[in-house]
C-alpha cells in the first residue's frame, strides 16, 4: 500500500458491525459483559472502539508496533516520560517545544526524572551528555522556530549502541513526510492538534511504539494515568488523516513558493526554511524526509517591523499553533518564546524581529501577494 492509500485504507477501515464506511463515534463509557471478564471492551479509559481505530491507523501509518492516543500532545509526551523512573535521565534537543521544556524542568524534575538539553544536531554533544543513568534521547526535528535539523538515523544508531531509546517528536513533519521508526527510532509522537487534525478544531496527541514491551508499558501508563481523548476527538483525527497526504503535498508546494519569495524580498533579512539550499539542515532533511513541511521563520529586523507586518496581513491569522488549512502567523519573541529570558533567546538566535508562519493551503498567489503588500507597509 502506498502512503496516500494507507492514510485512507490503513488500520481498521469502516465499521465491521454496520458496514459504515466512516468509523462510528462510539460515545460510550462502559460495555456489557457476557459474563464476568468476558468482553471485547471493558471501560473507555482502558479502550474504546473509535480510539482503537485511530490507534491502529496511526501505528500502521508510522510503520510501528502499536499506537496510543492522548488528550493532547503534552499528555502524550508526559505519558511517554512516565515510563521512566526517579533517577533516570533523558537527553533532549535544546530548543524543544516550550511545553516539553516546561514539563521536564518544572514538573517531571520534581519526581526525580533528570534531563540535559543539547544540540542533538551535533552528535558529539549528544555523546557527551549521556550518563550511566541515561535511558533515552528525545529528538525534535525540525525545531521551532528556527527549523534546526537532527539526523535521526545517526542519533538512533548511537542510542542503540548504548541501549538507549530514541524518541522523536514528529509533529512538524507528520508521518506523511518523515518516518522516524524506519530511521531507527523506538517511539514517535505527535501533537495531533497540528497537521494530523489539520483544521484547528481538536487538541490531541498520538504515540507509536516499536516493540511489544514498549506497547505494554505505554498501555499501562495510558490506562493508569488516563490522559485519553474522547471518541469524538478520535473521529476528527481519523478524518483528518484521510486528507493528510493531499494537504501536505499542497503545504510543501505553497511553503516552498512563500520561502523563495521571502528570500528574495528586500524587507526580509534572513529566512529559515529547510527547503532552501542555504539552510544548514537542508541535506539531512532531503535524506530523511520526503518534503520540507509548511513552517517558515524570517527576520524583519525589529519588533516594530514585525508589529507592522501583523497589522497588515489579511490571510495570515495571528495565532499560536500551526499545521492547519489556514495560514497562521506569530512572533516567537512576544508569544511562544516570551517566557525565555532575552539573553537566552539571543543565544538561540530568536531575534525580536523574527516572524514565524505556518503556511496553509490557500491559493499561494494570494499568500505571496498578502506578504508582499504587508512587508511594503500597504
Ligand atoms: C504543539 C506541540 C506540542 C504540544 O502539543 P499540544 O497538542 O498542544 O499539547 C508538542 N510538540 C510540538 C512540536 C508541538 O508543535
UniProtKB/TrEMBL annotation:
Membrane-crossing residue ranges in chain numbering: none
Keyword set, alphabetical order: Pyridoxal phosphate
GO biological process: cysteine biosynthetic process via cystathionine; transsulfuration
Obligatory cofactor(s): pyridoxal 5'-phosphate
Residue positions, PTM N6-(pyridoxal phosphate)lysine: 194
Pfam families referenced in this protein's UniProt entry, alphabetically: Cys_Met_Meta_PP (PF01053)
InterPro entries attached to this UniProt entry: Cys/Met-Metab_PyrdxlP-dep_enz (IPR000277), Cys_met_metab_PP (IPR054542), PyrdxlP-dep_Trfase (IPR015424), PyrdxlP-dep_Trfase_major (IPR015421), PyrdxlP-dep_Trfase_small (IPR015422)
Record-level GO cellular component terms: cytoplasm
Entry annotated with the keyword Plastid: no
CDD domains associated with the record: CGS_like (cd00614)
Similarity comment: Belongs to the trans-sulfuration enzymes family.
Protein name per the record: Cystathionine gamma-synthase
The organism of origin for this protein: Planococcus lenghuensis
Amino acid at each position: 500500500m502506498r502512503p496516500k492509500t494507507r492514510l485512507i485504507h490503513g488500520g481498521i477501515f469502516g465499521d465491521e458491525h454496520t458496514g459504515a464506511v466512516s468509523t462510528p463515534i462510539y460515545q460510550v463509557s462502559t460495555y456489557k459483559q457476557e459474563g464476568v471478564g468476558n468482553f471485547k471492551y471493558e471501560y473507555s479509559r482502558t479502550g474504546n472502539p473509535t480510539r482503537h481505530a485511530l490507534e491502529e491507523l496511526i501505528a500502521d501509518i508510522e510503520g510501528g508496533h502499536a499506537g496510543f492516543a492522548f488528550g493532547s500532545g503534552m499528555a502524550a509526551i508526559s505519558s511517554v516520560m512516565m515510563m521512566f523512573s526517579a533517577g533516570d535521565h533523558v537527553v533532549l534537543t535544546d530548543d524543544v517545544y516550550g511545553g516539553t521544556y516546561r514539563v521536564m524542568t518544572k514538573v517531571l524534575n520534581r519526581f526525580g526524572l533528570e534531563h540535559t538539553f543539547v544540540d542533538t544536531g551535533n552528535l558529539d554533544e549528544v555523546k557527551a551528555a549521556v550518563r550511566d543513568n541515561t535511558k533515552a534521547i528525545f529528538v525534535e526535528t525540525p525545531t521551532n522556530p528556527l527549523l534546526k535539523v537532527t539526523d535521526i538515523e545517526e542519533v538512533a544508531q548511537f542510542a542503540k549502541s548504548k541501549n538507549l531509546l530514541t524518541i522523536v517528536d514528529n509533529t512538524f513533519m507528520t508521518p506523511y513526510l518523515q518516518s522516524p521508526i524506519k530511521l531507527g527510532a523506538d517511539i514517535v509522537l505527535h501533537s495531533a492538534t497540528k497537521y494530523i487534525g489539520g483544521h484547528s478544531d481538536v487538541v490531541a496527541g498520538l504515540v507509536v511504539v516499536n516493540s511489544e514491551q514498549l506497547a505494554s508499558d505505554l498501555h499501562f501508563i495510558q490506562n493508569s494515568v488516563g490522559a485519553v481523548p474522547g471518541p469524538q476527538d478520535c473521529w476528527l483525527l481519523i478524518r483528518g488523516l484521510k486528507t493528510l497526504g493531499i494537504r501536505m503535498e499542497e503545504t510543501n508546494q505553497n511553503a516552498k513558493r512563500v520561502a523563495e519569495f521571502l528570500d528574495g524580498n528586500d524587507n526580509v533579512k534572513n529566512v529559515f526554511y529547510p527547503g532552501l539550499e542555504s539552510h544548514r539542515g537542508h541535506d539531512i532533511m532531503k535524506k530523511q524526509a520526503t518534503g520540507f513541511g509548511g513552517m517558515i521563520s524570517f527576520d524583519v529586523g525589529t519588533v516594530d517591523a514585525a508589529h507592522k507586518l501583523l497589522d497588515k496581513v489579511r490571510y495570515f491569522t495571528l495565532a499560536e499553533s500551526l499545521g492547519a488549512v489556514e495560514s497562521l502567523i506569530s512572533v516567537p519573541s512576544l508569544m511562544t518564546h516570551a517566557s525565555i529570558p532575552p539573553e537566552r533567546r539571543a543565544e538561540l538566535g530568536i531575534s525580536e524581529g523574527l516572524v514565524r508562519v505556518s503556511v496553509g493551503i490557500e491559493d499561494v498567489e494570494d499568500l505571496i501577494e498578502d506578504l508582499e503588500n504587508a512587508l511594503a507597509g500597504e
